Amino acid sequence: FYSKEMQNALVFYDKKMEDEMIKSFFIANNIKRGIDEGEFYLMYQPIFDINGKKLAGLEALARWQNKDIGLINPMDFISIAEKTGNINLLGDFILKEVSKDIVKWKDAGIDIPKVAINISTKQLEHQDFCFNALSIFEYYGVNLFKIEFEITESIMMGNIKIILENINYLNGAGISMSIDDFGTGYSSLGQLKNLPIKKIKIDKIFIDDIPYDSKGVEICRSILSMGRILKLDIVAEGIETKEQLEAIKRMGCILGQGYYYSKPLEPHEIQNSFL
Ligand code: C2E
Ligand code: MG
Ligand code: MG
Ligand code: MG
After folding, report:
1. In what residue span(s) does the EAL domain sit (predicted)?
2. Which residues on adjacent β-strands are paired with residue 202?
3. 3 in helix, strand or coil?
């Protein structure tokens, strides 16, 4: 029925799908063991004040170095952890690791202005999330005003009642919220207006377009002007070139993050860079 090429294409496609299924299955079944055996760790990417080139904060990014299949990216394991429910376990592990690192840096005499932690909608939907998180920070003696949680527009599709209760509670305790990957989800201006958030991060896909694509430039401009109206801080994510940095700076963006400044670093590299 199929030509020779078509048959080969089908076989190739099936093999690729099969490999991905095996990998997903492996990930789903090994997250808990991986946490217990110390295979997960954190890297930290600096966020800069664009004008003074001063450190404004760090973003914690999870990594999984597995003994059998090597380095696994968060893009691959976070969504699976969300589906299996292991995201709560992994999330608590991450909060503990960040707390330990903050204490280590503090003991080494480095004062990090802010540490941003990515939080999945699934975590924020959990009734016990605030209690858990605040207990961890209290145990390690972390100043809550140093912590920021990055959430995505997907919270709009979650259990918004619990999510809002949690966000308000965290805000009250001193932890601020930022919207990550802004522009890639389905949130509207109207919804954003009612959310108790402090910051938005313009997604890399829009930064990729500047300065040469005029539509991309207009999108960044309008996100920045909206930010000014709603009195939100704005971070440009994924800045890779000097041209992008200059363009976003001209548009009035204050905060920037991306390979142009720095890739994610090991905790001890943070220590060496900012001491
Ligand atoms: P994100 O929170 O938007 O993080 C930014 C991602 O972009 C990171 O990828 C970072 O390494 C990458 N990046 C930063 N600057 C540049 C750049 O200039 N060029 C390019 N090409 N990439 C850049 P990473 O670490 O692979 O994380 C991917 C996503 O996985 C994160 O996107 C976040 O949504 C999720 N994630 C990572 N760690 C955690 C975590 O601890 N918890 C949760 N829930 N999600 C996490
Ligand atoms: Mg993030
Ligand atoms: Mg992002
Ligand atoms: Mg992202």
Report:
1. 24-275
2. 182, 236
3. coil
Q: Is the CB of 272 under 6 A from ligand 1?
A: no
Strands, DSSP E only, in the chain? 40-49, 54-66, 70-72, 115-118, 147-152, 176-182, 199-202, 233-236, 255-256
Q: Which residue has the higher pLDDT, 19 or 76?
A: 76
- Cβ burial of 89 (10 Å; 0-12, 13-18, 19+) is middle
Mean pLDDT of 54-80: 96
Residue 19 has pLDDT above 70, yes or no: yes
What the block records as the tokens of 212 is 């040469």
pLDDT higher than 60, residue 90: yes
Asked whether residue 1 carries a pLDDT value surpassing 60, the answer given is no
- Ligand 1, atom 3: closest residue by C-alpha: 181
Q: How far is the CA of 120 from the centre of ligand 2 (A)?
A: 10
Residue nearest to atom 37 of ligand 1 (CA): 61
SS3 assignment, position 15:
helix
For residue 45, how far is its CA from the centre of ligand 2 (angstroms)? 10
The pTM is what? 0.94
Distance 60 CA to ligand 2 centre (A): 8
Show the beta-strand stretches assigned E in 2-129.
Answer: 40-49, 54-66, 70-72, 115-118
pLDDT at res. 5 = 65
- Give the ligand 1 atom nearest the CA of 239: 18
State the chain's mean pLDDT as an integer. Answer: 93
- Ligand 1: does its nearest atom lie under 6 Å from the Cβ of 76? no
Ligand 1 atom having least distance to the Cα of 264: 11
Q: Give the C-alpha separation, 60 to 117, whole Å.
A: 5
